[in-house]
Design a protein that fits this description.
- It is a single chain.
- The protein is of the alpha/beta class.
- The protein has 8 helices and 8 strands; from the N terminus they run H-H-E-H-E-H-E-E-H-E-H-H-E-H-E-E.
Length: about 250
C-alpha cells in the first residue's frame, strides 16, 4: 500500500497582483516579474493544482526505475521536484528543464535541501532541444500548451523515444471543449473559480488578453491523438476540472 503524502507544497508567498493595475506583460512571458509571483499565480489559477502535483509524485514513485532519470519539463520554480525529493526513498537523478533563467534561480533555492539527498540537474534550455534518454518518468505540467503544434509533436516523440521500456509520461494541459456552448459554460465556471481565489474581473480579463495567441489549447481528443501518434500505447485521463486535465501515458515493455 502506498502511504499518503503530506502534500503541503513549497510555494512562495509573494502575492500575484501583476494584472491588478498599471501596465501588464503583453504578450505573457515568463520573465522576472512573472516569476516573482508565479507560485501564487499558478496555485490560484489552476484548478486542483495541489492535487495534480501530489498525483504526479504518486505516479512517479510507482513507475520510477532505479538508475534512470526523472525529468520535469517546464519545471518552473521546482515545486514538483521539491515535493518528490521529500518522498522518494532512494537517491535519484532529478532533472528540471526550463527556458527561463529566473525560474531556475528560484528552483535552485527551493531544491537546496533536496540536493543533499538527490542529484539535481537544472537545464536552461527549450525542451525540444533536450535529451530524454534513460528516463523512466517524465512530468510535463501545463507546458506543451505554450509550444507550436509541430513543436508539441516533436517533443512528445522525443520523450517517448527517450523513456525506457515501462516508462511513464505524466502530463497536464489546459484544453478546450469541442462544443462552443460547453466551452462558454466552462469559461464561466473557471472565471468564478478565479474570482473565489481573489482575482478581480479586470485582472481576469487582462491576463486572458495577455495569454491570447501565447497559450493555444487543443481539445481532449486532439491531445490524445497526439500522444498516440508519438507511440504511447496506453493513455488514461486522471484528473479533470473545468478545462484542465492530467493524463498518464505508458511506454510498454
Amino acid at each position: 500500500m502506498t502511504e499518503p503524502l503530506e502534500t503541503e507544497l513549497y510555494l512562495s508567498s509573494e502575492k500575484d497582483e501583476l494584472f491588478e493595475k498599471g501596465p501588464w506583460p503583453k504578450p505573457f512571458a515568463f520573465n522576472a516579474e512573472v516569476v516573482k509571483v508565479f507560485d501564487n499565480m499558478v496555485s490560484r489559477s489552476v484548478p486542483l493544482y495541489r492535487e495534480v502535483i501530489a498525483g504526479a509524485v504518486h505516479w512517479t514513485r510507482a513507475y520510477y526505475q532505479s538508475k534512470t532519470r526523472i525529468i520535469d519539463v517546464g519545471c518552473s520554480t521546482g515545486t514538483f521536484l521539491e515535493l518528490l525529493g521529500r518522498f522518494l526513498k532512494q537517491p535519484a537523478i532529478l532533472v528540471g528543464i526550463d527556458n527561463s533563467p529566473d525560474m531556475l534561480d528560484k528552483a535552485r533555492e527551493k531544491l537546496a535541501q533536496v540536493e543533499q539527498i538527490h542529484q539535481i540537474e537544472l537545464i536552461c534550455e527549450s525542451a525540444e532541444n533536450c535529451s530524454f534518454e534513460n528516463s523512466s518518468v517524465v512530468v510535463m505540467n501545463y507546458t506543451l500548451q505554450f509550444l507550436s503544434l509541430p513543436q508539441r509533436q516533436k517533443l512528445l516523440l522525443a520523450i517517448y523515444q527517450g523513456l525506457v521500456p515501462g516508462g511513464l509520461l505524466f502530463m497536464s494541459e489546459k484544453i478546450r471543449s469541442c462544443c462552443p456552448q460547453f466551452q462558454e459554460t466552462i469559461t464561466r465556471h473557471y472565471e468564478a473559480f478565479k474570482t473565489k481565489n481573489g482575482y478581480a474581473q479586470n485582472e481576469i480579463e487582462r491576463k486572458k488578453e495577455a495569454l491570447e495567441n501565447v497559450l493555444i489549447p487543443l481539445n481532449e481528443a486532439e491531445q490524445l491523438q497526439m500522444l498516440k501518434q508519438s507511440g504511447f500505447q496506453y493513455i488514461e485521463s486522471l484528473i479533470k476540472l473545468h478545462n484542465f486535465v492530467s493524463f498518464v501515458a505508458l511506454k510498454s515493455d
